[in-house]
Q: What sequence folds into this?
């Protein structure tokens, strides 16, 4: 069964607007962590934001926020005030069993975001 | 900080050749990983290690081997290269006690098998 699902192969947004990238996950483990990574055309993987399953508040990092809806098993990334440099592939990832469980980070297939001027 | 260093950045192999992808981290991370990324796809885990002397298979381990003799180094060995191993390979590391710091990735090795 697919652990991480990103249903949007591609997204377009106008510069300075906000955009939401969808991510749903599947796990029966009560302790897990959710991650978002950015991969620009240069190829490197850049860590953006982290949300733990027991965290009470949604994570935020600058213009990035994670809309965490535990009951729906969704962890959508919200980018506010999009910039041209935000154009990249975005990957959602999950690690189950944060304490003594799986050490593996599982990735979704990604969403390609294009920011238009 | 150098972070995670991978060498080489590019390599072309002929079918049946072997090679080792090098990975070194200087952050004293206990966990290290090898992923492959095929065109237009996400990353798939090949092997991982939770500490020196300990390695385990990931999702796609066939055709690869690893070793972890030190905390810093985690080389990936390809034996008898096949066209299906054409991919971009990423090494990553993390510190188990601080999930919120994420995983640090190397810049990748682009491998072509012809």
A:
């Amino acid at each position: 069964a697919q652990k991480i699902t990103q249903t949007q192969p591609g997204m377009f947004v106008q510069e300075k607007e906000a955009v939401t990238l969808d991510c749903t996950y599947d796990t029966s483990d009560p302790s897990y962590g959710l991650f978002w990574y950015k991969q620009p055309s240069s190829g490197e993987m850049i860590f953006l934001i982290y949300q733990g399953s027991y965290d009470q508040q949604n994570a935020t990092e600058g213009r990035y926020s994670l809309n965490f809806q535990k009951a729906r098993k969704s962890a959508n990334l919200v980018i506010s005030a999009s910039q041209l440099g935000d154009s990249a592939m975005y990957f959602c990832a999950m690690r189950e069993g944060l304490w003594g469980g799986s050490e593996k980070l599982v990735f979704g297939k990604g969403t390609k975001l294009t920011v238009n001027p | 900080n150098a972070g995670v260093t991978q060498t080489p950045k590019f390599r072309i192999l002929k079918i049946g050749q072997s090679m080792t992808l090098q990975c070194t981290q200087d952050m004293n991370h206990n966990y290290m990983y090898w992923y492959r990324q095929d065109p237009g796809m996400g990353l798939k885990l090949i092997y991982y290690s939770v500490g020196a002397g300990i390695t385990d298979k990931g999702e796609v381990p066939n055709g690869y081997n690893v070793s972890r003799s030190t905390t810093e180094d985690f080389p990936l060995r390809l034996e008898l290269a096949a066209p299906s191993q054409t991919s971009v390979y990423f090494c990553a590391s993390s510190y188990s006690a601080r999930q919120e710091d994420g995983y640090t990735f190397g810049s990748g090795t682009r491998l072509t098998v012809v």
User: Anything to note?
Assistant: Chain A has no helices and twelve strands. The CA atoms of residues 34 and 51 of chain A lie 5 Å apart.
